[in-house]
Design goal:
By secondary structure, this protein is α+β, with helices and mostly antiparallel strands. 28% of the residues lie in helices and 25% in strands. The chain contains nine helices and 21 strands. It has helices at 39-52, 86-104, 122-137, 147-153, 181-194, 238-246, 308-321, 367-384, 397-400, and strands spanning 2-5, 11-14, 32-35, 57-61, 76-77, 115-119, 143-146, 169-173, 177-178, 198-201, 205-211, 214-220, 223-226, 230-232, 253-262, 272-275, 280-284, 290-293, 330-340, 347-350, 357-361. An eight-stranded mixed β-sheet has the order 7-8-6-16-17-18-15-19. The protein is globular. The N and C termini lie far apart (61 Å).
Length: 418
């Protein structure tokens, strides 16, 4: 066993002879500073260095990388969203997982097991037909199954009439699956620092400085950094940081979202199974645990506390559409923060209201699914100063103009050029 030292100089025991990613002392200036050491920040830094040669980049993380939503999710990835603006973004994100595994030389444990979205009414079946048409138009494989076909895909499902919401069928999305979230954190950190990016953990950003309408620097708990570009990508904390430091109020509510795992079981089912009617989803991990979660808590807060109500809800929901799980014990439960916009679509914008300032936030529970592709295009935005076309629909002003996107809001006739 080798005695290593942490960044603070305290000894810690470990088997590895060297760190996965490098530690560097903070410099007085960088070409770009990213506030938030989660997946979106790490991915953006990686692509800035790899695709644009901008390796003089600092990531500031108040705690440690992967502390927030990156380490508090159930690792599901998919591209079966509803709108024509979301589907291409998430499709490219799915396509990037095997590419990143090769580039980073790091096993991200991408398991292309497919997603089954259960449908519990004729109205839901009709809506699914429209969603499937949108997906197929954009080249995303998606199929409509009836109840019998759904049962054949997942024999453990209950398709009887003796349940609160009988299963009428399912929307089957073969390209979806799961990726190991902590492996993505470590892989991106390794790849970014190998290209010259500096990661500063336990370093809090305390102020963003501007001069003549342009970004000039960032104050941190470790000193001031001069920089012409700042990206805030801090998950549930982004809206508070932006309002406190620049006075820009975002239409974001911060909600707790909870998840849990059961005791390990023998192989039971092979897909991610979700139900909008029951507000529950589940998949079986490589360790045999059933990882399950539901919709977020309905009241805004900044806590990651868990509740007995949530445990009760999950037990009741899973017991109905997966009755074989009755009597199985929950072993762990955790909570994370979801930054939710009114239309359940993110805010990705830049040079507004300050030149050199960029934001990547409002992801709700879609942040993990999108980190690979968003890092790629936010890096292009920051390096070249022009917003890539795929990001244009997600600008901040859509909320001010009452032109919400259609993930949960009413569908609108929206043109990204307006």
């Amino acid at each position: 066993m080798v005695l290593n030292f942490s960044e603070q100089g305290t000894p810690m025991l470990g088997l590895a002879k060297k760190r996965i990613w490098k530690y560097n002392f903070m410099k007085s200036s960088y070409d770009a500073v990213i506030i938030g050491g989660g997946l979106h920040g790490l991915a953006t830094a990686y692509y800035l260095a790899k695709e644009h040669g901008m390796n003089d980049v600092a990531i500031l993380e108040k705690r440690f990388i992967g502390f927030g939503g990156a380490g508090r999710n159930t690792a599901i990835v998919r591209a079966n969203q509803r709108t024509q603006y979301n589907v291409p973004l998430y499709k490219e994100a799915l396509d990037l997982w095997p590419v990143l595994t090769r580039e980073l030389d790091f096993n991200l444990m991408f398991n292309n097991c497919g997603n089954l979205n259960l449908l519990h009414s004729e109205a839901a079946m009709k809506t699914a037909r429209m969603n499937i048409s949108t997906a197929q138009f954009h080249g995303v494989e998606s199929h409509l199954l009836d109840a019998k076909q759904t049962k054949e895909m997942e024999p453990a499902l209950n398709i009887s009439e003796d349940m609160t919401y009988p299963i009428h069928g399912a929307m089957y999305h073969p390209p979806g699956g799961v990726v190991r979230h902590d492996a993505v954190v470590w892989g991106l950190a390794k790849g970014a620092t190998k290209l010259g990016v500096h990661i500063h953990q336990q370093t809090e950003a305390t102020a963003i400085h501007t001069e003549n309408g342009k970004i000039s620097g960032v104050s941190t708990s470790g000193g001031r950094i001069n920089t012409p570009r700042v990206l805030v990508s801090a998950g549930g904390y982004s809206a508070g940081i932006i309002f406190r430091m620049l006075g820009v109020k975002l239409p974001i509510s911060v909600l707790t979202i909870q998840a849990m795992v059961t005791q390990p079981l023998k192989p039971l089912f092979n897909h991610v199974v979700s139900s909008g009617a029951y507000h529950a989803y589940a998949n079986q991990t490589l360790k045999g645990e059933i990882a399950t979660g539901a919709h977020m808590d309905p009241w805004p807060n900044y806590t990651t506390q868990t509740t007995a109500y949530y445990i009760k809800h999950q037990a009741e929901a899973l017991s109905e559409f997966l009755p074989c799980l009755r009597g199985v014990k929950f072993m762990r439960i955790w909570g994370g923060l979801a930054d939710m916009t009114p239309d359940m679509a993110p805010i990705m914008d830049g040079n507004d209201p300050v030149e050199g300032f960029y934001m990547d936030c409002g992801w709700g529970y879609f942040g993990f699914k999108s980190c690979s592709v968003v890092g790629k295009y936010m890096a292009e935005f920051m390096a070249e100063g022009n917003c890539p076309g795929i990001l244009k629909p997600f600008h901040l002003r859509r909320c001010e103009q009452h032109r919400l996107m259609g993930e949960t809001a009413a569908l609108v006739n929206y043109s990204p050029d307006n």
